[in-house]
Amino acid sequence: MSKPVNLGRQRTLRSMVNYSFPASFIMSNLNLNLGFTYTSTPSLINNATNTSYSSTLSPGLTLNSNISQDLDFSLSYRANFNSVENSIQANLDNKYFSHTASFRLNWIFWEGFVIRSDVRNQLNRRTETNFNQNFIMWNASIGKKLFANDQGEISFQVFDLLNQNRNVNQTVSDTYLEEQQTKNLNRYFLLTFSYRLTSF
């Protein structure tokens, strides 16, 4: 039999600051942002009240190009500094760091050739649990515009070019630590043809 127990209030504080401005020397826009979250959560463990205090600091930036219709790129980076402390369950205390860095490019050049590239680096590191995940996910393609008004396109694509895709996740909550690993599709190749219909 179980029954609800009123342990007091859970407190959460969130803040976010954004600042955007043109980077005219490279015909782009730059966005800087900073986020902070603080949470205190009570829980009942063996008839004793444990309070978990977690904080996350998240700086980031995004650079978006504004060059032309034929050349478009973006560059982004976000880091997360996380800390979890417990009033009575010190074995679940944890400090961990993660970041995501990505670059995307679309380029239409000579006679309608198209290059597309999407690169992402994912890092997750927790020293207390020896969890360390670091991989690069790179998708790329080369194609050719066809027919009048570029209505058709044939493209050769490679997904996970470096064959490094990983799908491992570790969750640290107030009362438990869980590590999950799922199967995913690794590197593969794809040849596509597309045609854009227009109204008459």
Please, could you describe this protein's structure?
With 200 residues, the protein is an all-beta fold. The protein has one domain (11-195). The protein contains no helices and 11 strands. It has strands at 11-23, 28-45, 48-65, 71-86, 94-109, 113-126, 131-146, 152-159, 168-172, 177-181, 188-195. The strands form 2 sheets. It has a 9-stranded antiparallel β-sheet with strand order 1-2-3-4-5-6-7-8-11, with no helix packed on it. A hairpin with a 5-residue loop joins strand 7 (131-146) and strand 8 (152-159). The protein is elongated. The termini are far apart. The model has no long low-confidence stretch (mean pLDDT 86).
Query: How many H/I helical runs?
Result: 0
Q: SSE string, helix = H, strand = E?
A: EEEEEEEEEEE
SS elements, strand count: 11
Percent of sequence in beta strands = over 45%
Give the terminus-to-terminus CA distance: 70 Å
Biggest pleated-sheet summary: 9 strands, antiparallel
Low-pLDDT segments, ≥5 res: none
Q: Report mean pLDDT, rounded to a whole number.
A: 86
Q: How much is the radius of gyration in Å?
A: 23 Å
| Structural class by SSE content | mainly beta
Q: How many domains is the backbone divided into?
A: 1
Strand order within the widest beta sheet: 1-2-3-4-5-6-7-8-11
Helix content: under 10%
What is the general shape? elongated
